[in-house]
Amino acid sequence: MSSNSSQNQVSVAYFGPAGSYTHQAALEKFAKLDNVTYNPQTTITDVFTFVEEGRSIFGVIPFENSIFGSVVTTLDRFVKSDVQIVDEIYLCVNHNLLSKFKFESITKVYSHPQAFGQCQNWINANLKGVLHVEASSTSHAAEKAAKEPNSAAISSSVSAQLYGLDILVKDIQNVKDNKTRFFIIRKTSTTIPTKNDRTLLLFTVDHRKPGALCDSLKVFKDHNINLTKIDSRPSSQRHWHYVFFVELQGHKDEPEINKSLVELNDFCESLKVLGSYQNLKPQEAHNN
Ligand SMILES: O=C(O)C(=O)Cc1ccccc1
C-alpha cells in the first residue's frame, strides 16, 4: 500500500485472531502507514462483511497457496460480494508444531485445513493416530491448544509467542519455499494501470452449449491476453453448475482488456470483474 500522509485513520479487517498468517500479511502490507487500526475477524466471510458494511476500509484475506492451491472459502465468498481486489501480497509461510506438552504425549492437533494440507507429508509420517481438529485459523488453533491438555497446533512462530506455546518441530510444511498469496479488498476499485497488473474475473457460461467455455476463453487468445490462473467452483445457484475464476495479465482500464471484456460478456450468462491490481508475484529462481 502506498504511503499516505493524511491524518485519516485507515481501518483494516483481517482474518485472525492475532498471529495468523493473514495478520502477518496485513502488517507487512500496511507497515508504512502509522495511522492503521486493525480489526481481527474470526472468519474470511466476516472480513468480507466488515468491508461491505463499511466498518473497515480494507480487508485482508488469503487467496491461494503454492502447495495446496485455492482457499475455497475466499472463492465462494467472492461469488456473493461486490468488493474489489485492490492489491496483493505474497508471504513465505513456515508452519511449526506448537505445544505446551512433550511430543510423545500429544493426542490432538488443531489447525486450519490449508495448514493441514500444506503439511500433509510430515503429518502422515509423524502424527499417526493423533486426532486432527479443524480450527477457524492457525492462530485460533494455537489459542485452543494453549488451553487444552495434550494438545498441539500447526501454526506460526508468532502464534507460539503470542499464546505461550513451545515450538516442538520447526518448518513442517511439504516444501521449504511455501508461499501464500493474500488479497487486499475494498468497497470500490481505486487502482490505476501500472503496466504490470492482473485482473481477476468471475463468470458463468451456459453449460448446455458445447464449447461455451472454450468460446469465452478464445476471446483472450484473440486479443493476445495471457491467462495466469483458472479455477472453478459450484455456483451455489443450481446443482452441477459452476462459476469460473479467470485471472489475466493486464488492467481492466487498459483499452485492449476493456475490449476483450465487452466481447467476453456475449459468451457469459454472468460476468463480474473482481478487480485489477499490481502484480507482486515474486520471481522464482527455477520457473516463471
Ligand atoms: O490460518 C491462518 O493463519 C491464515 O491466515 C490462513 C492460512 C492458513 C494456512 C496458510 C496460509 C494462510
TrEMBL record:
Keyword Lyase: yes
Entry-linked Gene3D superfamilies: 3.30.70.260, Periplasmic binding protein-like II (3.40.190.10)
Source superkingdom: Eukaryota
Residue ranges of every copy of the ACT domain listed in the record: 201-278
Prephenate dehydratase domain sequence ranges: 11-187
A GO CC annotation given for this chain: cytoplasm
InterPro entries, sorted: ACT-like_dom_sf (IPR045865), ACT_dom (IPR002912), Chor_mutase/pphenate_deHydtase (IPR008242), Preph_deHydtase (IPR001086)
GO MF assignments: prephenate dehydratase activity
SUPFAM superfamilies given in the database record: ACT-like, Periplasmic binding protein-like II
One GO term (biological process): L-phenylalanine biosynthetic process
Metabolic or biological pathway, per its Swiss-Prot or TrEMBL entry: Amino-acid biosynthesis; L-phenylalanine biosynthesis; phenylpyruvate from prephenate: step 1/1
Enzyme Commission number, as recorded: 4.2.1.51
Primary enzyme class: lyase
Family annotation (PANTHER family): PREPHENATE DEHYDRATASE P PROTEIN, PREPHENATE DEHYDRATASE-RELATED
Name of the molecule in the record: prephenate dehydratase
Organism: Diversispora epigaea
